[in-house]
Structure formats: structure tokens, C-alpha cells
Amino acid sequence: MMTKNETERRDIEALLPWHAAGTLTRRDAQRVEAALNEDRDLARQFELVREELGETIHLNETLGAPSARAMERLLAGIEAEGAKGRRRQSFNLAAFIGERMSMFSPRTLAWSAVTAVLAIVLQAGLLANLYINEPGSEVPSAYKTASATRSLGPVGSYALIGFTPQASAADVTKFLEAHKASIVEGPKPGGLYRIRVSTTALPKNDLAAIVKQMQDDSKIVRFVAATE
Amino acid sequence: MQATSDEALIGRIATGDKVAMQVLFARHHVRVYRFVLRLVRDQTKAEDLISEVFLDVWRQAGKFEARSAVSTWLLAIARYKALSALRRRPDEELDDETAAAIEDPGDDPETALEKKDKGEILRKCLTALSPEHREIIDLVYYHEKSVEEVAEIVGIPQNTVKTRMFYARKRLSELLKAAGVDRGWP
Predict the structure, then answer these.
(1) What is the C-alpha separation between B56 and B79, in angstroms, rounded?
(2) A159 forms bridges with which residues in the sheet?
(3) Spatial separation of the C-alpha atoms in residues B170 and B127, rounded to whole Å
(4) Which of B19, B163, B184 lies at the smallest CB-CB distance from A170?
(5) Which residue of A92, A194, B134, B151 shows the fewest CB atoms closer than 10 Å?
(6) Which chain A residue has the Cα nearest residue B35?
């Protein structure tokens, strides 16, 4: 059977690695220190522990670091999550009205309902009158937007761009503003984005000049090329 | 100037702050990568896994209760993901022979001894440990995790943490002895 001293010694011995790493509580660290001062064998073993500690650090430090791909993959994942999040957080009219309605008393709600019904009836009457009395027409005029005559096709000049892992969201926003560009698509594989650099189709040379300007901002941009 | 604490960063990440996410990544990704790499032994896979670890942080930041250090939380997620990835690859069993074969493609301990470099032999023997022993040694010595934190990351009782560390060290001494370095312990 193990004596109390032997048990205590084994406990201390088991704590040596944490004592060497400096991760013991103050109380345990004091216990170990006291034992190390009294027990030469334990002190010798502690030297071995320190040796192991040093070489483990050395070994891990030679493992290198991940490439920028890890960060790009993370940012692409976050962008994808962000898009989902925005959809989830889109404005919910029913919930908004429900929340506001719950603040009113039943009497107020009853009067509000009556007023709303009257407003709907009145509005329906006015619309019917407008439809029937419109001069020279049997059907309401077709709905037109102010921009209806404009083509909605993908007019403009575009580039494919990849940002450096160090570039923060604020850096990217500032960069896009400075170049009057906007992200229209992405992230694509490799963390690339399609950006519109002009709302008009620029001559090839002008687009190349813009791309060159963007390339010069190497702190933000790791890749940029003109695209369709 | 005082750096923002990890816990404060997690709080900002929970509100969707991408810059805070980048700061946390910059602060921890190398250590997490090395921890994962020692488990999966594949650089590309390790890079993919750390992206997933930090993406989980992005998703779960709001649920972080600060009962443990952020670095402990990161390593626990990383370990879970690494072991899941290994389970998907049955040819990468966690056994001593595979670990030694993959991790130690260069000189064997005997050859290394000829180089008269005790440190190098020790490092060779560290890589020849079983993944279970290697993991605990890395967590204690390199990642500076306390007994409680290792227990949380590995998911074992605290007494088992101490026992496992003891046997990992004992095995290391045996490997060193086999390589001609008798440390006189155990």
C-alpha cells in the first residue's frame, strides 16, 4: 500500500509538466516548488520535463503556418453565411404590425379596425370611379416605369478581383469607393469577386488602365484582371 | 496600448463584425493549424479544417459563454473537426505505426543518434509517439493548457489527463532509451 508521502510525491510528479509550462494554480505551484527544493530526484525529473517542453515547442514551431488560402476560404464562407443571414433578417411586415398592435388596448384596436375598413372601402370607391371615368379608355393605362425604355442588360465594364487576407471590410469599401467600383458577384472559387468598374462599356485600353491602377494597391489587392 | 481581449472579440463577432473575426483569426490560426496538422498530418486538409473551425466560431459566437478561454474553445472545435475528418478516412487510423511511418520519414532514432544531437533525437521520438500521447504533450507543453483545459478539450476527466500525460512521458523515455539516450527515468 502506498503511504501518504508516496501518494503526495506521485501527485507532485504528475504536476511537473504543468509546473514547467506555468499553468498551475498558485497553490499547486507552491506545493511543487516546495517538493522540488526537498527532493533531488524530483528536481532531476523536472529538468527532463523542461527539456521535453523546449523540444516540443521547437518541434511545433517548425511546422510552419497555413497559406492565405485558409483565410480566403473563411471569408468566402462568411460572405455566404452573411447572404443567408440577411435573408433571414429581412423585414417582416406581419411581425412588425403584430408587435405594434400588441401595444394597444382592445378598445383602441376596435376603433382602428373600423377606421381601416372605412379607409379601404373609400379607396376602392375612388379607384373604381377613376377607372370608369377615364376619358377615351376601356382599360387602365399600362404601368410604366421612368426607366422602362432603358435596356436592363449587363452594360458596363467588369473586373475579377481577389483581396489580400489582411484587407479588412473597411479597406475593401474604401478601395471600391476610390475606384468607383461595386461588387456584383462573388465570392467565386478562390475568393474572387466580379466588380463593375464602369457603368458603360469602356474601350479595352481604358479598362486595362483601371485594372493597372487597382493592381498598384497591393496592400488590398492580391489579384485583378479585366473580365466580361 | 492594450489589445482587445479574445472574449471582447467574440462579443463583436456575435454582432457580425468581420474585422473582429479577422483579428481573432490572425491571433490564433497558426496555433490551431499546428494542432490540427499534428492530428491529420496533411497540410491542405489542416488548412481546410481551420477555415471550418473559424467559420464555426462565426456561427456560434453568440453562444460562447466564456466559461473557458477562447483558445481552449478553438482547440476543442479543432480537435472535434480533425477527428471527424480522420474518421471519414479509414486509411488514416490513429495508431502508433501509422503515426511513426508518416511523421518520421527521415532518419530513425538510431541514425539520428549518430548526429549526436540529443534535441533532435527527442524531437524524433516526440513525433513517434501515438497521436493520443502526442496530442496531450502538445496541449500541455506547446498550447500551455492547464489540467482542466486539457480535460475540456479532450473530453476526459482531470485525473485521466494527469495519468495520460505521465504515460506519454514514460513512453517518450522508452523511445529515447531505444534510441540510445537513457535519461534514468522512469
Answers:
(1) 13
(2) A195, A226
(3) 15
(4) B19
(5) A92
(6) A60
Does residue B131 sit within a domain? yes
Q: Kindly determine whether residue A74 and residue B123, on different chains, have CB atoms separated by under 8 Å.
A: no
**Any chain B CB within 8 A of the CB of A81?**
yes
Mean pLDDT of A27-53: 95
Which pTM does this prediction carry? 0.61
Dist. CA B129–CA B38, nearest whole Å: 11
Q: Which domain holds residue A170?
A: 157-227
Distance CA A55, CA A58 (A): 5
Separation between Cα atoms, residue B62 and residue B45, nearest integer Å: 27
Grid cell of A218 as nine digits:
497591393
Instruction: Look up residue A11 and give its three cell numbers.
Output: 501527485
How much is the ipTM here? 0.86
Nearest chain B residue (CA) to A46: B185
Q: Say how many CB pairs under 8 Å bridge A and B.
A: 119
* Position A212 pLDDT exceeds 80: yes
Q: Which of B66, B31, B69 is nearest to B146 (CA)?
A: B69
Provide Rg for chain B, Cα atoms: 18
| Measured CA angle at B65 (ends B64, B68), to 5 deg | 95
Total domain count, chain B: 2
- Is the Cβ–Cβ distance between B165 and A17 less than 8 Å? yes
> What would the mean pLDDT of B139-146 be, rounded to a whole number?
97
**Which domain does B76 fall in, by range?**
6-87
Question: In this complex, do B146 and A170 lie within 8 Å of one another by their Cβ atoms?
Answer: no
Name every chain A residue with its beta carbon within 8 A of the beta carbon of B140: 17-18, 21, 23
- Whether A42 has its CB under 8 Å from any CB of chain B: the answer is no
Residue A30 pLDDT greater than 60, yes or no: yes
* A79 shares a domain with A44: no
Same domain, B100 and B81: no
Question: Could you give the number of structural domains in chain A?
Answer: 3
Asked if residue B44 belongs to a domain, the reply is yes
- At B87, the amino acid letter reads R
